[in-house]
Amino acid sequence: MAPLQQHDVGTISPSRKGSSGSSSGGGVQQMPGSVLSKSRPSIFPTYGGNHTGATRTVLKEDPSKFDSSSSSDSGSKEEHTVPWIAALTTYFGYAVLILFGHLRDSLQTLLCTVIPSRYVSDCPEGYAPLMSDFQHFYTRRLYCRIQDCFNRPICSAPGAWIDVIERTKADDHTSMQLCTGERGELSYVTALNLSSYNYLGFAETDLDMRDEVVSTMRRFGVSSTSSRTEVGCTEVVRQLEERIATFVGKPAAIVFGMGFATNSTVIPALVGKGALIISDELNHSSIVTGARSSGSKIKVFKHNDASSLEHILRNSIVEGQPRTHRPWRKIIVIVEGIYSMEGEICNLKEIVAVCKRYKAYVYVDEAHSIGALGVTGRGVLEHTGVSPKDVDIMMGTFTKSFGSAGGYIASSAEIVEHLRRTSPGSIYACSMAPGCAVQANLALRMIMGEDGTKKGQEKVEQLRKNSNLFRAGLERMGCEVLGDRDSPIVPVMLYNPAKMPGKFKIQAVLEFMHIS
Q: Is the pTM for the entire model greater than 0.85?
């Protein structure tokens, strides 16, 4: 029997050129919390802090003005509505692109039939096409038009400043080619990094912890090449489990080698047939994948709405399981600390109160909130004033605030031991790499102040100030910004896809370089 038992019931910036580069840009989403590197190009102004020479007065405010104490509660925030003119032009633009895409596909099919010697079909004769769904059509006819805005390769550490490799479209217009110089070296531009999950700057290459990580890799190797149930359980992984459990305030924890796999392999091990999963409508794809593969009944409540959750919980308990109307074996409510595409902070206190009232378990995904929220970086529970005892399962990843890789589940000792024996991510998948485990452990130690310094707390505080200052600056510039204050994710709505490679990209370059 499962341990959970229910009782009756989701780069903007130009810079100096590399070997033969030109300005480059992209979209804004995440705001890194690390202080800008001293080796940044001299042509760039520094926003925030004690400095001179910054000409953009909108960003010269005192960061203390944007503290969380001055912001309203995330649960009382009004729902975002799209302006009708933006919706109309966006839908019209997509309709035109889809129409011309289908016309081009029809023309290509006709030419392949009429002139087979010149126009060769992508599908072998006699075979059905493997990729014939709308996603493949969208990739070919819409995404490829603006693909230079995405998947930008870099040739440096993902710090505050990154070296972005330049690309050009290939002859077939469906792929990109890397640009090289006269002697074959890669051509790149140095840009300000606004699109990284490196919230606290632990992915930098000049930190003191680098030597200890390298030393661990020399001792244990790059990978354990084995699962936890065989010979993949190293002492550094055990140390990380003990430290993360202490950090989040839970009795025990288990770590996994991949953040996505943490949700997708743990949820099926906790719930199954006869159970009910109630999920926020904007939960991450890893939660959706895990819930679907569990075999449980899935219901969705309105995003961040405790009253919608209570309505679904009450009706589900009264109705019971489909057809038989028997009581659910268990009910689990799954939410995120910070929603990765919206930048909104979970209304956790009200959601936990509803779950306790109806005896439902609470599962919180803190992938983006752990290390980034709260006075001491302990995540959304600390930020909203919820006790760890009121949350049954706490999930998080090391790929964001800790500059590493992998994920964890923190819960009671009984649940953790159950997951060690039943979760595919623990039984079959390769264990977390020793170097990654030490990296996450050292980052945690610094955040907790166990290294004897205040560097960790200064990083957490700087991230909060940077995020709020950056958000306020965008709002004053007239940008439509979503999300909550204190969130390191700052989404800016563009709506029309043509704005991404065109007007928005060029405008961002000119504005940043102060070119009128």
A: no
